[in-house]
Amino acid sequence: MTVTKEEVKVRGTELTDRVKTAIHEGNVRRIIVKDSHGHTVMEIPVTVGVVAFIAAPVVTAAAALAAIAAEWTIQIHRDPEQEPPA
Fold first, then answer.
1. Measuring CA to CA, which residue among 78, 5, 64, 65 is closest to residue 33?
2. Residue 57 belongs to domain spanning
């Protein structure tokens, strides 16, 4: 299975919005949030069927992190074989 990686740099509250958007995309396998020093702060495995279950606590945690520091890097691992919902 091939997994593609996307890396996005965000600031403050953009972190919450980007994590929320990525969780709701159907072809996302994992989301990794890193601080400005490159240290992994949060790693979220996203599996089909549990999106609604994990969305609320993850978004709450992302919002708390956004309040702590100004700059974040989000790595989004995607499964290109799985189509996102229309």
1. 65
2. 4-78
